[in-house]
From TrEMBL:
Pfam families for this protein: ABC_tran (PF00005)
Organism whose genome encodes this protein: Streptomyces gulbargensis
Annotated SUPFAM superfamilies: P-loop containing nucleoside triphosphate hydrolases
SMART domains: AAA (SM00382)
Protein name per its UniProtKB record: ABC transporter ATP-binding protein
Spans through the membrane: none
ABC transporter domain boundaries: 9-226
């Protein structure tokens, strides 16, 4: 692992179901610097949850390795947010405090709950979104070095999403927490994440700081012509009009209008390309 990486993988692979099972992840190599907020993106079945579970130490690699902080310094919020159904919200936080002696940050946990639910409620009586809040409160209360979130915002209403995303990002910035967050909501990642890891078919397709990746790509429209020496990520032609996203090799010179892509443009083009490759 490079010296300041908070999470790294080398030729990481995982096959479910023993030798006969299919590979969910294969030959994954990356190093995520400490303090980054990383978006983990990819189509359904790409291997995102598998990667997060490996990072959390809940699965063992079939091959290669993953290097992460010690278990007690990681908080992991799984997609199904496992919580004890018969505990109240207050008791759930008390359990968090008892399980994390000397480290528990009660005010961070309470900020996540933000008076939105009755602390005496039992977890089993909460809605999906309310449970998400409790799971996030437990995760932030743990004051982790590495926060692993598997589609954390999926069942939150838009206002709660906006509020919690802001809170998470501010908390991570204040404490230098490294965050890896899988999501299908591309618009929400823009502005929140400074690092990107795109998986498809169990492999890393794109990896790097968001600013560098954006700066390496150009959106162009204009007449159909040879795009060499640039690498075409995606192109479409309508009549004689060409629209393309390229990873440029030096300046893009030609008869085209060029613009800088947004993160959503970049992700959609790469996702469509990997979809096309799969079809
Ligand atoms: N427990 C399991 N047993 C067998 N195969 C599994 C298991 N969990 C996941 N898989 C398979 O591994 C692959 C990767 O699944 P994973 O859940 O990691 O993808 P994902 O990117 O998180 O998908 P989604 O966006 O739908 O949540 C898929 O082909 C899936 O069918």
């Amino acid at each position: 692992m490079t010296r300041d990486a908070a999470l790294a993988a080398g030729l990481l692979g995982l096959r479910y179901g023993g030798r006969r099972g299919g590979w969910a992840l294969r030959e994954c190599d990356f190093a995520l610097p400490a303090g980054r907020v990383c978006a983990l993106v990819g189509p359904n079945g790409a291997g995102k949850s598998t990667l997060l579970a490996l990072a959390a130490g809940l699965l063992r690699p079939t091959e290669g390795h993953v290097t992460a902080p010690a278990r007690e310094r990681i908080a992991y919020v799984a997609q199904d947010k496992p919580l004890h159904p018969r505990l109240s919200v207050t008791d759930t936080l008390r359990m968090g405090r008892e399980l994390n002696p000397g480290r528990w940050d009660e005010s961070a946990a309470r900020r996540v709950l933000a008076d939105t639910l009755d602390p005496r409620s039992l977890v089993r009586d909460l809605s999906g979104g309310q449970r998400t809040r409790v799971a996030l409160a437990l995760a932030l209360g743990k004051r982790p070095e590495l926060l692993l979130l598997d589609e954390p915002m999926a069942d939150l209403d838009p206002l709660a999403r906006h509020q919690l995303m802001g809170l998470l990002m501010a908390d991570a910035a204040d404490h230098g927490t490294t965050v890896v967050m899988s999501s299908h909501i591309l618009t929400e990642l823009e502005g929140a994440c400074d690092h990107l890891l795109l998986l498809a078919g169990g492999r890393v397709r794109l990896d790097g700081p968001v600013d560098d990746l954006l700066a390496a790509h150009t959106l162009l429209t204009g007449p159909v012509a040879d795009l060499a020496p640039h690498t075409v990520v995606e192109s479409r032609t309508t009549g004689r009009q060409l629209t393309a996203l390229v990873r440029h090799e030096g300046p893009v010179e030609g008869p085209w209008e060029t613009t800088a892509p947004s993160l959503e443009d970049l992700l959609l083009a790469h996702l469509r390309t990997t979809e096309g490759a799969r079809a």
